Amino acid sequence: MGIITLTIDGQEVEVREGMTVLEAAQAAGIYIPALCSDPDLEPYGACRLCVVEIEKMRGLPTACTTLAADGMIVHTETPAVNKVRCTVVELLIADHPSDCLTCSKNQQCDLQKVAAYLGITKQRFRKTTRLLPVDTSNPFFDHDPNYCILCGKCVRICNEVQGVGAIDLAFRGYASQVSTFGDKPLIDSNCESDGECVAHCPVGALIPKGCPTA
């Protein structure tokens, strides 16, 4: 593949043809927040946090699914982009527990890091009141759906990389959650306890047993 040159936030970046805008930005040391992107997975565009403005392109495309092109001019920090990102994160926080200081993922949580990067310090949206049961049946890790941000990384790792298919996104709308077939406990599913879902979870939804709180 050949080398192409694009401009990201005023900086000329040379990358291999076939790379995405997100990969090009990362290669240049330019941070674009993303919660569903992972080098082990094909681009998905689920979280909508990596939206950018690209000159001569309509709307706000996701950087993780948009291929970099020669001569492309990308803006990663604009009022429109930041408005979308802040709204997405604020909605996630509204449906997320507020116990960051005692969470096992404190200071290692990607949602926490993105919120800090965007300067989100106040809660605009009303907190949800639902409380889902925690699955502690697996001997190696716990699944707490209350912390889940539905990024889909655990599901895709289990299905596309590991080839196990023990979990999937179940139900619809506000009731959506990661679950096993038939909504059974993990111990009664075909989960192989390989731990890849835990390793790729960006928040505190999948935590190893005995993991200390902060």
Automatic annotation (TrEMBL):
Primary localization: membrane
SMART domains according to UniProt: NADH-G_4Fe-4S_3 (SM00929)
Domain 4Fe-4S ferredoxin-type: 139-169, 183-211
Example of a GO biological process term: ATP synthesis coupled electron transport
GO cellular component, one term: membrane
Requisite cofactors: [2Fe-2S] cluster; [4Fe-4S] cluster
Residue ranges of domain 4Fe-4S His(Cys)3-ligated-type in the record: 80-119
GO molecular function: 2 iron, 2 sulfur cluster binding; 4 iron, 4 sulfur cluster binding; metal ion binding; NADH dehydrogenase (ubiquinone) activity; oxidoreductase activity
InterPro entries (UniProt xref): 2Fe-2S_ferredoxin-like_sf, 2Fe-2S_ferredoxin-type, 4Fe4S_Fe-S-bd, NADH_UbQ_OxRdtase_75kDa_su_CS, NADH_UbQ_OxRdtase_ferredoxin, NADH_UbQ_OxRdtase_Gsu_4Fe4S-bd, PSI_iron-sulfur_center
Subcellular location: Membrane
Short name of one Pfam family: Fer2_4
The protein's name: 2Fe-2S ferredoxin-type domain-containing protein
Family: Belongs to the complex I 75 kDa subunit family.
UniProt keyword terms in alphabetical order: 2Fe-2S, 4Fe-4S, Iron, Iron-sulfur, Membrane, Metal-binding, NAD, Repeat, Translocase
SUPFAM superfamilies per UniProt: 2Fe-2S ferredoxin-like, 4Fe-4S ferredoxins
Occurrences of domain 2Fe-2S ferredoxin-type (ranges): 2-80
Gene3D superfamilies: 3.10.20.740, 3.30.70.20
